[in-house]
Each structure stands twice: as C-alpha cells, then as structure tokens.
C-alpha cells in the first residue's frame, strides 16, 4: 500500500494565520470500536487538531483555499458571519 505524502498549507485569513495539514486515513479498530477514516485535511492549532475535509492529492491551491476559508467562516468565525444585515 502506498502512503500519501503529507501536505501542508498556511493560510492568512481575517488577520490570522491558519495551518492545515493532510493526514493518511486510519484502518478500523474493532477492539476499540473505531471506524476506518479516509485521508483528510486537519486544522492545527495550540497542540490540537480539527478535521476539516477529505484530502484529495493534487487539488488546485486556489480551490483549496476557498474551501478552507468557507470552513473557517462556518467553524472559527460563526458569530461574525451569521445574520449579517
């Protein structure tokens, strides 16, 4: 089985820098009751990580940045984007 290369993206958005890292999927572990996961992009911050979206190698960088900013608007800045008049 070939291993996907880890990719990283740093994105400056709304005056902050965000660090996204891709990780391989993990096989299921029935003993621990954990399902298999596919390769995904994760947001890294303060020693923690949050799953953002599936990872597809070779995705266009501009498209990726748009997807990351949409995720940030929904998850990191929800109060500032909700109910704008």
Secondary-structure-derived class: alpha+beta
Could you say how many structural domains there are in total? 1
In which range does the helix fraction lie?
Answer: 10-25%
Largest sheet: 4 strands, antiparallel
Strand order of the biggest β-sheet: 1-2-3-4
Distance between the termini: 52 Å
Helices, by number, come to 2
Query: What is the N-to-C succession of helices and strands?
Result: EEEEHH
- What is the tally of beta strands? 4
Which properties best describe this structure?
85 residues, 4 strands, 22% helix, alpha+beta, globular
Summary of the model, kept short:
The protein contains two helices and four strands; from the N terminus they run ββββαα. Strand 3 and strand 4 form a beta hairpin. The chain has one domain.
List the helices and strands and how they pair.
Elements: E1 8-13, E2 16-23, E3 40-45, E4 48-54, H1 61-75, H2 78-81
Can you describe this structure?
The structure is a single chain. This protein is an alpha+beta fold and 85 residues long. It has one domain (8-81). Helices cover 22% and strands 32% of the residues. It has two helices and four strands; from the N terminus they run ββββαα. It has helices spanning 61-75, 78-81; strands spanning 8-13, 16-23, 40-45, 48-54. The protein has a four-stranded antiparallel sheet with strand order 1-2-3-4, covered by helices on one side. The protein is globular. The chain starts with 7 loop residues before the first strand and ends with a helix. 7% of the residues are buried. The mean pLDDT is 89.
């Amino acid at each position: 089985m070939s291993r996907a290369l880890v990719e990283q993206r740093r994105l400056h958005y709304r005056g902050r820098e965000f660090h996204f890292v891709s990780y391989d999927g993990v096989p299921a572990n029935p003993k621990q009751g954990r399902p298999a996961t596919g390769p995904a992009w994760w947001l890294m911050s303060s020693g923690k990580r949050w799953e953002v979206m599936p990872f597809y190698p070779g995705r266009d960088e501009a498209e990726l940045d748009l997807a990351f900013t949409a995720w940030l608007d929904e998850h990191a800045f929800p109060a500032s984007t909700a109910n704008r008049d």
